[in-house]
Design goal:
Blueprint (H helix, E strand, L loop, with lengths): L5 E5 L4 E3 L5 E4 H10 L5 E10 L6 E3 L10 E6 L5 H21 L2 E5 L7 H11 L5 E4 L3 H8 L2 H21 L2 E5 H8 L6 E4 L12 H11 L4 E6 L8 H13 L4 E6 L5 H10 L7 E5 L4 H10 L2 E4 L9 H7 L4 E4 L2 H10 L2 E4 L4 H13 L1 H12 L7 H15 L6
Parallel strand pairs: 1-4, 1-7, 2-4, 4-6, 7-8, 8-9, 9-10, 11-12, 11-14, 12-13, 14-15, 15-16
Antiparallel strand pairs: 2-3, 3-5
């Protein structure tokens, strides 16, 4: 075991560098890097770097408290496209190789498409004979098939499917987020482990007085529900709106919120108007970076309505349970496991909008059932906190990627 531990970690979210040369990091990425500091003396975190101002949700690295002596932010040229990769890969490879030589433990977020830095880092580590892990929190080949239309989508899905299978077979460790992703990849990976990901602590759970108030409000008045995530085909915004339209047709009073921006945001607003869903029934605030406001949305909702269309293990389901907000939506192994723990939700088969409408209508008619679900949610996911999940992941890496095993 080395006297010091250096972790080289590949990130899924890119960096951005503005015209003044300042580096911006996604806020939750910064949270994760701080969590890794508990277990490693030095961290080398690499990601492709875009030019120009960052989108919402990114902050100056210095504002996130990222100490350059303990956390080295390695900005790579953008390789994420076949033509661009041919131009930038030599530089990116040199930077990656030099960092690998200084690191004891290697783990890479994996995307699967040509030029994905995790894919390239995995290949490079294998060529250097280095033990390494890859991390997946969704099935990228399904995402391409779901979100990219026509032959382009089919090509991307096929290439990603081939790449992710090869990467899982060559990696010494596969860290697979949530039961859905684990079940999909467990028979492909050479060394699969199920892990979780969350950036909330026990202190972020809904306070008892707010829970009491929430239970009282759920017993009467219009239904209040929400979704927090990207407006994207894979997140199922279209079936989500179909549920709202069906409730409207039944004259069931409700107020829904979709918190988040994305490629389908404008289409979502237009479709809601076409379906006759008005502004008093639906709020679309777009992206909100204020963490307190995001938590407020989770806590105010009487349930999280979700219609995920691909195999993934999104942490917004765990965040919802931390807010005593039960899960109502399309079933997969991840959501089913979360619900099964305390009975904190109701699930239907993926794509069955009619069944989902019936569940929501029943919750409106039977408020005691709704308050029971909220009570169950308040008791759920106690074992899923930032401290606990990062500790579990670090222990797996330290055991499975021990340099002395090389």
């Amino acid at each position: 075991m080395p006297t010091t531990r250096t972790l080289m970690i590949g990130l899924g979210a890119p960096y951005y560098r503005d015209a003044q040369g300042r580096l911006f990091v996604e806020d939750q990425t910064g949270s994760g890097l701080h969590a890794w500091q508990v277990y490693f003396d030095k961290i080398i975190a690499f990601a492709i770097c875009g030019d120009g101002p960052p989108p919402s949700g990114w902050s100056l690295a210095s504002d996130l408290g990222l100490d350059i002596h303990e956390i080295e932010l390695l900005a790579l040229p953008d390789t994420y496209a076949p033509r661009r990769m041919l131009q930038t890969w030599p530089v990116a490879r040199k930077l990656m190789a030099e960092a690998m030589d200084r690191a004891d433990y290697l783990t890479f977020a994996y995307g699967g498409w040509v030029g994905d830095p995790g894919e390239m880092a995995s290949k490079l580590a294998a060529s250097k004979g280095r033990r390494h892990a890859i991390w997946l929190d969704r099935v990228e080949s399904q995402v391409f098939r779901s979100t990219t239309p026509g032959i382009k989508g089919r090509i991307k899905a096929a290439v990603s499917l081939r790449n992710e299978r090869r990467a899982l077979r060559r990696a010494d460790l596969a860290m697979l987020h949530g039961r859905t992703v684990f079940d999909y990849f467990k028979d492909i990976a050479r060394n699969p482990h199920i892990v979780e990901d969350i950036h909330l602590e026990d202190s972020d759970r809904i306070p008892p007085d707010e829970l009491t108030e929430k239970l009282g409000q759920a017993a009467r008045g219009p239904l209040e529900f929400a979704y927090v995530g990207r407006a994207d085909d894979m997140k199922g915004w279209q079936p989500w709106l179909q549920v709202l339209a069906a409730l409207n047709a039944r004259d069931i009073p409700f107020h829904a919120t979709w918190l988040g921006n994305g490629p389908a945001f404008d289409a979502m607003k237009a479709k809601a108007s076409e379906l006759g869903i008005n502004d008093t029934q639906l709020t679309l605030p777009g992206f909100v970076s204020d963490r307190a406001k995001v938590l407020e949305t989770f806590r105010r909702a009487q349930f999280l309505l979700f219609c995920h269309m691909t195999d993934e293990s999104p942490r917004n389901l765990i965040e919802s349970l931390h807010s005593a907000t039960p899960l109502v939506g399309f079933s997969d192994a991840f959501s089913a496991a979360l619900v099964a723990e305390q009975g904190a939700g109701s699930l239907v088969s993926r794509g069955d909008v009619d069944a989902l409408v019936e569940i929501v209508a029943d919750l409106d008619a039977n408020r005691s059932k709704l308050t029971d679900l909220i009570e169950a949610a308040s008791k759920s996911a106690r074992h899923l906190t930032r401290q606990q999940v990062f500790k579990a992941r670090a222990e797996i890496m330290l055991a499975e990627l021990d340099p002395e095993k090389s």
